[in-house]
Design a protein that fits this description.
Number of strands: 8
Strand content: 25-35%
Strand order of the largest sheet: 2-1-3-4-5-6-8-7
Largest sheet: 8 strands, mixed
Structural class: alpha/beta
Low-confidence stretches: none
Radius of gyration: 19 Å
Distance between the termini: 24 Å
Length: 243
């Protein structure tokens, strides 16, 4: 939000962002679409801001809000999400079956257009680092002209002599023309089980497109023994040519 930079203090910036959500986005949507229960829209917006990057369906969102004492029907959820996306407050990432090479309509992920709006609405709690990082990467990829989906695939593993089908996810499948890049957003890679979990989907993908892991605790760019590229978050954000 460019206008943010004309303010000097943190309090002024916070007030500007909060008013932007309340007055420009929510009030405008209520007036434009003639919404009678504005509180429902606010509750849904707050719920979506608190769960950015989480796989969701309309029914799952409706059920979760009902469990939080904010009952709202599936039909209304679908309608309001459409309004919020049309207003560019949220963006929708569809699921893409990597092996089947087709989109899946069962679940989607939603990302806020500007992470400052989420922070201001939640009073800068700063307790959602991994999802905020994922949201930043998504927005940056969109700014660089990529069409971004959420990758989904299944692999078969053997456990105690039994073969089982295991679902895997690639955070982002970024396409731009004939170019494709697979990207995992990982807050920290300091644990072995995390490294194995994040690399597992890549080892199941047999094409030759770039496979990248972006980490908050990494610096520079390097490849591991499996040909998977690792890039630090700051390097990714500061160098538009790295991806």
């Amino acid at each position: 939000m460019p206008e943010l930079f004309q303010y000097v203090t943190d309090e002024q910036r916070s007030d500007y962002l909060e008013n932007l959500v309340e007055l420009v986005y929510l009030t405008d949507i209520v007036e434009r679409h003639g919404i009678r229960n504005a509180r429902e829209l606010e509750d849904l917006t707050d719920f979506m801001l608190s769960s950015i990057g989480s796989a969701s369906s309309v029914k799952r969102i409706s059920d979760a809000m009902f469990a939080c004492n904010h009952p709202i029907t599936d039909k209304t959820v679908k309608k309001y999400i459409g309004y919020l996306c049309d207003a560019y407050l949220f963006d929708e990432a569809r699921r893409y079956d990597i092996k089947g090479r087709k989109h899946i309509d069962s679940e989607k992920k939603y990302y806020v257009a500007d992470i400052g709006l989420k922070n201001a609405r939640e009073h800068f709690r700063q307790d959602d680092g991994p999802h905020i990082m994922e949201n930043l990467i998504y927005c940056e990829l969109c700014c660089r002209g990529y069409d971004v989906d959420v990758g989904s695939l299944y692999t078969t593993e053997t456990d105690q002599g039994r073969r089982r089908r295991v679902g895997c996810e690639v955070d982002f499948v970024a396409n731009r023309g004939n170019e494709r890049i697979y990207i995992q957003s990982v807050y920290s890679m300091d644990k072995e089980d995390v490294r194995l979990r994040e690399k597992r989907p890549y080892l199941c993908i047999k094409d030759s497109f770039r496979k990248v892991i972006i980490t908050l605790d990494g610096k520079g760019r390097r490849y591991d023994e499996d040909g998977i590229e690792r890039i630090g978050l700051i390097d990714f954000l500061m160098d538009s040519d790295c991806i």
